[in-house]
Write a structure and sequence with these properties.
alpha+beta, binds 6-diazenyl-5-OXO-L-norleucine, 5-stranded mixed beta sheet, 22 helices
């Protein structure tokens, strides 16, 4: 993510704050039982989040290399499942948590089967199941698969490998125990591959993308490469959930609640299935061999961003029901050409996001990333909540941060259809007051009204505040192209009418006995929805006409027309229209042509909008 975009993102700013919160924490010790690991800089620290859409947020030492260590175990377990199939792998490795340390010799009584693939015994067994024509071929295949998880070529840190191999006596003992129970044929090649996999150099960004690959069903979110068959993803995530943090797994699921794997190199890989991956790196470890800062960061992320998988599973990745600009989809207010051209240009800068489902961190992240990506091209973002069922506290918090950061850049974030989001609006308003933020909380009853509000803002910004004009008969849309003679014929047939604001001009079902040409003011055309609520179909202003189609086809009124403001207009009733046809057919034809032209414009605009809404 480009630097400037990063600074705009409330998510990036949140991660920076979280990093700062634990940067001073110096509890724990770096691993020293592998001598090379004792040389690492204990203060290195990074937090990275990668989404299944390919958005990556990284703070701290995100490109500093360290060795993957036990985080390699789920990847090799997945590879073994792919190479040998579930039955053979299960015949040699169980899936039960041990409650013991990572290097415990936890073998099943009788069979000698390691209890799970996350402890060293199970991992060594898994390494023995990786296929290959030779040891080098196995190493190359394993490295290739790990590189697919990371989305870039990875390499082995030979200093660590040598150090691990030289000091790996306990693992060697485990290897020979496995040989004793015929779990592995020859422990040496299995141990060699295991030591090499643990010594692969990665960085924290890689870790988050590896996690996002697992979250994305085995496919890397950026490269699109498949690192693991979909059928094995759940199996790998299941053992990570129950066994990934060894004898701290229970506490982990309770407090963080996501499949994860830690390593003595100081990394923790965390997966929120279907949504995102997290990588944390800090080499100081607790007695269980888990990164101290890493655990704290993951607990806070889970709590503050609602990431516990038993809570966040409902949030649909497709938070967007529709997204478009107001250049593509207009309000129901019909506007004169002078205003329409303003909206065609400036409307690109107003983006409408019809949201849906539950808004938790993963879904709000997609919205933030979209808005940040728009950069300075975005003037106003409209969020429509009509189909939003719930807004989590983390999402509310991030929306607040977004309003503040957008406001700092002179951008507006406005809300629509929030009748069921009272709590959210109260939270935003209270936070606004408490923080002394200068932005206005703009929430409009419905999306159409919100789009019209934006349009008025754009037009006012271009033309200055629009004063309600009075449009002469000659300039009315229905009189387009009529010369003075034709107007002289038409004018005497018209009746001048005045309607007060909110006065009904005609109702749905009334016989259509006249058409109306608007001189000044606005009228709203509405129908009563099945729920009894008035549904605005259109708002017309001076220079437009209404009621003409029903008059021409001789039907009943298809909707109510109500004066939105005080209205001045001309009425052409049926008798006069028929007289016009009899005496001046070319004038009537000109009127009919103008009716067809504006009907065509409406159909063309609606087709564009349907296309934009379907996009
Ligand atoms: O085998 C070992 O001891 C190391 N290569 C890996 C151990 C490890 O990462 C444990 N995780 N917390």
């Amino acid at each position: 993510m480009p630097d400037d975009d990063r600074e705009r993102s409330p998510i990036y700013r949140y991660l920076q704050a979280l990093h700062a919160r634990y940067a001073g924490l110096r509890d724990g010790q770096v691993a020293t039982y592998i001598p090379e690991l004792a040389k690492v800089d204990p203060d290195r620290f990074s937090i990275c989040i990668a989404t299944t859409d390919g958005n990556v947020y990284e703070v701290g030492d995100s490109r500093h290399p360290f060795t993957i260590q036990s985080i390699s175990k789920p990847l090799t377990y997945g590879l073994a499942l792919g190479d040998r199939g579930l039955d053979e792998v299960q015949s040699r490795i169980g899936v039960e948590p041990t409650g013991d340390a990572f290097n415990s010799i936890s073998l099943e009584p009788g069979s000698g089967r390691p209890l799970n693939p996350m402890i060293n015994a199970g991992a060594i067994a898994a390494a023995s199941l990786v296929s290959g024509r030779s040891q080098d071929d196995k190493v190359a295949r394993l490295l290739a698969v790990y590189s697919m998880y990371a989305g870039r070529p990875l390499a082995i840190d030979n200093d660590v490998f040598e150090s691990e191999r030289a000091s790996g006596h306990r693992n060697r003992a485990i290897g020979h125990m496995l040989r004793n129970f015929d779990i592995v044929d020859d422990p040496e090649p299995a141990l060699d591959l295991y030591f090499r996999q643990c010594s692969i150099a990665i960085d924290c960004r890689d870790l988050s993308l590896m996690a996002a690959t697992l979250a994305n069903g085995g496919v890397h979110p950026v490269s699109g490469e498949r690192a693991l068959d979909a059928v094995h993803v759940d199996r790998v995530l299941s053992v990570m959930t129950t066994c990934g943090l060894y004898d701290a797994a229970g506490e982990w699921v309770f407090r963080v609640g996501m499949p994860a794997k830690s390593g003595v190199g100081g990394g923790i890989l965390v997966v929120l299935p279907g949504q995102l991956g997290i990588g944390v790196y800090s080499p100081r470890l607790d007695p269980h061999g888990n990164s101290v800062r890493g655990l704290e960061v993951c607990r806070d992320l889970s709590r503050e961003l609602d990431l516990h998988f038993l809570r966040s599973a409902r949030s649909a990745r497709s938070v967007f029901r529709a997204r478009y600009s107001t250049a593509e989809v207009r309000s129901k207010r019909r506007r004169p050409e002078s205003e329409r051209s303003v909206l065609s240009d400036a409307g690109q800068g107003v983006r409408v996001y019809e949201l849906q489902g539950d808004l938790f961190f993963p879904s709000i992240e997609a919205l933030i990333a979209e808005i940040v990506r728009r950069g300075d091209d975005l003037a106003i973002a409209v969020l429509d909540f009509k189909r939003v069922s719930a807004v989590g506290p983390a999402a509310a918090r991030i929306l607040f941060e977004l309003m503040t950061s957008m406001n700092e850049r002179g951008q507006l974030l406005i809300f629509a259809s929030c009748e069921r989001q009272g709590r959210l609006l109260r939270f935003l308003d209270e936070e606004r007051v408490e923080s002394g933020a200068s932005w206005r909380l703009i929430a409009l009853p419905d999306l159409d009204g919100a789009i019209e509000w934006c349009e008025n803002e754009l037009i006012a910004a271009t033309h200055g505040v629009a004063h309600a004009p009075t449009i002469a008969l000659a300039d009315n849309d229905l009189c387009r192209g009529l010369d003075a003679a034709a107007l002289d014929v038409l004018a005497p047939l018209l009746t001048h009418r005045r309607f007060a604001a909110r006065e009904t001009i005609f109702r749905q079902g009334d016989p259509a006995e006249a058409l109306f040409l608007l001189a000044s003011g606005q009228v709203t055309i509405a129908m009563t929805s099945p729920h009894g609520a008035p549904k605005r179909l259109s708002t017309l202003s001076a220079g437009m006409s209404f009621g003409e189609l029903a008059l021409v086809i001789g039907g009943l009124r298809s909707a109510d027309v109500v004066a939105t403001t005080a209205v001045d207009c001309w009425e052409l009733d049926r008798a006069a229209f028929d007289r016009l046809g009899a005496s001046q057919p070319q004038v009537k034809i000109a009127l009919l042509q103008n009716m067809l032209r504006s009907a065509h414009e409406i159909v063309a605009r609606l087709s564009r909008e349907v296309t934009a809404l379907a996009a």
